[in-house]
Design brief:
Length: 346
Amino acid sequence: MKILNQDKREGRIKVRIDNLDDLWHLKNILKEKDVVSAITYRREETQRDKIRSERGEKKKMRLDIEVEKVEFHEFTDRLRILGVIIEGPQDHGSYHTLNLTEGDELTMIKEWKDHELERLKEAVERSEEPIITFVALEENNATIAIMRQYGVKEMACLSPNMGGKMYDSERLSKKDYFEKIVKKLRTIMEPGEPLVILGPGFTKEDFFEYCKNHHTELVKHAEVVPAGEGGLTGVHEVLKKGRERETLDGQRMGYESEQVEELLKEIKKDGAYSYGPEEVEKAVEMGAVETLLILDENVREKKGEEMMKRTEELGGEVIVISSTHEGGEKLEALGGYGALLRYKID
């Protein structure tokens, strides 16, 4: 993401969306009653349209919308912002949906919270970071996934079998199996980008050695990591155990998961913690919260917004946890709210 223009007095910030992670960050920044402005397409309404069934052609125009709902559609690479038109050439008071994707520009006008500005800063700083690709290898299966800042996304699942079911299909040779994986990797990652090769057994080492001999540029920044299982289960295992690894250091998903794990450690040793909406709210009002963990789905609730605001007013830190990864699932099981406290309370 790149900030194109900023007016702190009016709370107006214009950004350019550079990648899929930017859409996810914006989903967590925007909330109800914020105002957004963007170039979009809308059917031009005429008097004839009100009488006849024909619909006018869509025309390019800039509309300002008061936000009512924000949806991040990961599989279509889009951010949908639904709201009421408050400024533009037509249809004031009518509903419109902005569909934003990579390359689009968006102006946001809002009362900015500290954690929102911090998230925007993070999106800008990490926009140039390479995407980490994983190959989870087993003898009969290879899963290719990429790690976005919001979670792991499976890109392909390959098999050494040439046809359908495993038991009645002709198998590829190991060389052809590896070439099949390499071919797919080249459509997903650029040579020299970080690559983590993982899985049980020795297939992962065999694949790494094969690439070193035949596709050196592909494994220039590769790391071979043991895992008890293949597939996405193996990827999550590596992420959980390997946050200290240089390849995975600094990723948003790992950072969020670490914060949730810290909370779980405090719970296990009966330390300075609180979880659940009611208990965390009490801790916030007491000024005991050092770090507030809140699930992204709760950010737009009145209770969540008030807790975040009060925590920041009292000098605490707010961390929004994505519901799309394991750390978010664990926080959801605790009621969607958690807090690391300055001191232990009853």
